[in-house]
């Protein structure tokens, strides 16, 4: 069951990268959740905390292939 949900945030993360450009900054309330954690672990974004609840995420690279990992 967990494997089913784990694919959802990975797919959402790759869709997020397709919609944004390298170097772009995205602001959020909170750390961005599972999607942003996955992108940080893969090395696609760098996140910084700018206040108690606000974060800024900067896209530093994109995946070479557009296929979703399983």
Observed structural traits:
alpha+beta; 23% strand; 2 helices; single chain
Q: What does the model show?
A:
The structure is a single chain. The protein is α+β, with helices and mostly antiparallel strands and 70 residues long. Helices cover 40% and strands 23% of the residues. The protein has a 3-stranded antiparallel sheet with strand order 1-3-2, with helices on one face. Strand 2 and strand 3 form a beta hairpin. Helix 1 packs across helix 2 (33-42). The longest helix has 18 residues, at 2-19.
In the sheet with the most strands, the strands line up as: 1-3-2
Number of helices: 2
Query: Based on helices, strands and strand pairing, what is the structural class?
Result: alpha+beta
Poorly predicted tracts of residues = none
Give the number of DSSP strands.
3
Mean pLDDT, all residues: 84
Q: Give the topology string: H per helix, E per strand.
A: HEHEE
**Biggest sheet features:** 3 strands, antiparallel
């Amino acid at each position: 069951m967990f494997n089913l949900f784990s694919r959802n945030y990975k797919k959402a993360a790759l869709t997020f990268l397709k919609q944004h450009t390298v170097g772009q900054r995205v602001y959020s309330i909170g750390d961005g959740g599972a999607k942003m954690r996955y992108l940080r672990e893969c090395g696609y974004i760098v996140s910084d905390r700018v206040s108690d609840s606000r974060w800024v995420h900067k896209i530093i690279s994109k995946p070479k292939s557009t296929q979703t990992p399983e």
